[in-house]
Amino acid sequence: ENMESKTASKQKQENSEEINEHKRKRVKFDEEPMKNDLLAKFEDAKDEFETAEQQLKIAHALQRKIFGSRIISRTDVGDLGRDVKDLRRAFPCGGTMSSVVDDREDVWANAKNNLSGRPGEPPHNLLLVRPYHWKPFLGFADVNNASGVDLSLTSNESEDTAEDEKCLQLKWTANILRRLFDEYYRYYDKGETRSVPDILCEMRKKVFGEKPIVLLFSGLVPLHKQQKNYDPSKPRPAYIRYAQELGGKVVTDIDKKITHVVAAREGTDKVHWASRQQNCHVVRASWLMECFWSFTRVDENEHMLKLSLSSKVAETTKIDLPLPVSRQEKDDSDSSDDDDFAAELEAEMLT
After folding, report:
1. 111 and 166 share a domain?
2. 302 CB contacts (<8 Å, ≥6 apart)?
3. pLDDT digits (tens, 9 = 90+) for 96-127
4. 191-231 pLDDT per residue, tens
5. Which domain holds residue 87?
6. Which reaction does this chain catalyze (predicted)?
7. Which terminus of the chain faces fewer neighbouring Cβ atoms within 10 Å, N or C?
8. What is the H or E stretch that residue 332 is in?
9. Does residue 99 lie in a domain region?
10. Torsions phi, psi of 255, nearest 5?
11. Is residue 50 part of a domain?
């Protein structure tokens, strides 16, 4: 009997242990990690805003020391954000001895008494720069960029790469201003008077002027607007104006003299044709923009349009010149809104 009772009690104990193993364990959620996480985020945000305030104070000190009262921002003039910018706000005589650095040109396009450039185009002494967006405010709308998107950051780039490129823009602008300073006083020492817009025009022309460059646009400028770019009474589409001011020649039809096809996407007849030519580069619009931002001819290899397998197969098809523009490309071009340059640039830089 003792043996039977011991065996029964042992079996009962084993069964109870087995049941306990299958029981779900109670998990108590501690609120402390959540509190610590929120506190850490709050501390980071506090540090970032304190850093921003310190940088703002330094910027104001540098502004007073270097530029005096010659910097006008939208916070200084009540209607500056709603009205077009005009150099006569700071220089009543026209500002022909000054230059403008801005990441937007549409606010200068209709300035009154524009002494340089076509009607409806920004003055020649405007230095267009790559738009910059401070990292903590990415995704928030701003009056300078309603979409709140960092136009200089593509989906394939890392944050470190983007930061390096933004530093490059500062170097580009500093280099342009040094060259402008040297050129201005070189003419001055010779007893010649040259305005800043004229000197900047000469500097831009030399970017593509040393080697003849012929450009053809695909999917960036509507065809009906390309035909109007020779009318001096009307503003040119932005991409065409950039290419011409840099010293390039823009054509609307395929020709063997073409050196660059600037395309928004693959799959068009122009891209297929250019990909079979030995001396023709198929580049994205970012190449043209970096040339315009830096006043230098940047390497095309960093901005080549990547072709898919289907496009590479299509390259083997022989197409004789002259090549008609495909209906698909024409429809897409006509439907695009070239007047809104910011939207075009955003779409290009994000692809």
Report:
1. yes
2. 287
3. 888 889 888 887 876 665 666 677 888 888 99
4. 998 999 999 999 999 999 777 899 999 989 887 777 765 67
5. 66-207
6. O-phospho-L-seryl-[protein] + H2O = L-seryl-[protein] + phosphate; O-phospho-L-threonyl-[protein] + H2O = L-threonyl-[protein] + phosphate
7. N
8. helix 327-335
9. yes
10. -150, 150
11. no
